[in-house]
Amino acid sequence: MIPYSGHIEEKTSLRWRQHFRYTSNPYAASRPDISPSTDAAMSDQAYSTAVFKQQYHGVEVSFPAGEPDFRSVRNSCAAACRAFNSTPEDADAKIRGEKWLDIVKPKRPKKADGTSAEEGTMVTHDQAITNPALKATIPFIKPPLWVDYGTRLKVASTTFINRNCVILDTPVADLIIGERCNIGTNCTIVCVGHPVSLEGRRNTKLSTGAPVTIGNDVWIGANVTILPGVSIGNGAVIGAGTVVNCNVPPMTLAVGSPVRLVKALALSEDKPSRLIESYEESTEFTNSLPMEQWDGTDSGFRAAQAAQLAHKSRRGSEQVVEQRREEQRERLRKSEIVVIAAVTTVVLALFNLFFFAGLYLGESRGCLSLKSSDL
To answer: Which residues cross the membrane (predicted)?
Structure first.
């Protein structure tokens, strides 16, 4: 279940809230394994922020992370992560899968040789790619990886996590990553926090835990930070370097620090692309940007550098000339305004002069006619 109900945090704009409260989600319609009855993310029911957090975000829980029992679990998880990270990346995928299970399922039943019963039925991503009828049973995770506890970390078997992922999970809140997700390098997912008040940090020395849920088919770019109490809806894309501090709706592109919603995503894209089906074909395929005026020699480099400086100088001189032209045009505009104002003033003065002169002449003629009648 993905903790999203069509509601976006109140601080986002009303336009976005209205945009995402639709009755028929096209993403759900395109996927037969998603239905409103099984996936809360696809319902049209709108919740207030308080109800939404209470129902889907769970409760922020405090716990004494420094106590021996919590520290013991962290130490065991650290040892499992160390063993996972020491495994060569080109090692057998099932061996790496076993060491991943040591992180998230340390108490699972094991055979006499130390391997778990799941090894015989384990399906790796490589096997699933080779045989589409199979589904991977273990996520594809590249070392190094760092996890704090692992006890409430749930990663779907079809998900891929790239290098240097840091997962600061807690024993009091779930961290769920859905199916077919792609998580880029250097990502940090945080479920733990600390009291904001100085007294709370000095005296109680407690940590806080809040859940994080990442839906199905989510693509998270490199260097993304996901903060506690956040849910990311199905099909969303999080741009590289984003700090996710509030909920992201399904099928949404979100970027920035803090995160902002950019646009709703389409189900398909008509962007043309070439398919390379084999490594041998890739070696024969040319796909590079040309180097700027450089043939690889020192003289060529100096020539390219001189050309670049000349280009910058030319652009600078062009900008100066354009700035001077703009200043000249501005002066001409001001001169035109002054001339127009002067002409308008003269015209008004002449108009007033003729007007009052006419009045004066009219009164004079009236007086003369009056005297003639008196005679």
So the answer is: 337-361
Is the Cβ–Cβ distance between 311 and 292 less than 8 Å? no
User: Cα–chain-centroid distance for residue 39?
Assistant: 23
Distance CA 148, CA 99 (A): 15
Residue type, 104: V
Percent of the chain with pLDDT over 90: 32
Strands 231-232 and 212-214: parallel
SS3 state at 161: strand
- Residue where a domain stops, chosen among 211, 246, 280: 280
Whether residue 344 lies inside any domain: the answer is: yes
What would the two tokens of residue 98 be?
Answer: 């076993």
Q: What is the pTM (predicted TM-score) of this model?
A: 0.62
Q: How many beta carbons lie within 10 A of that of residue 17, not counting itself?
A: 16
Catalytic residue among 7, 19, 57, 194: 194
> Catalytic site residue 57?
no
The sign of the CA dihedral 362, 364, 367, 372 is negative
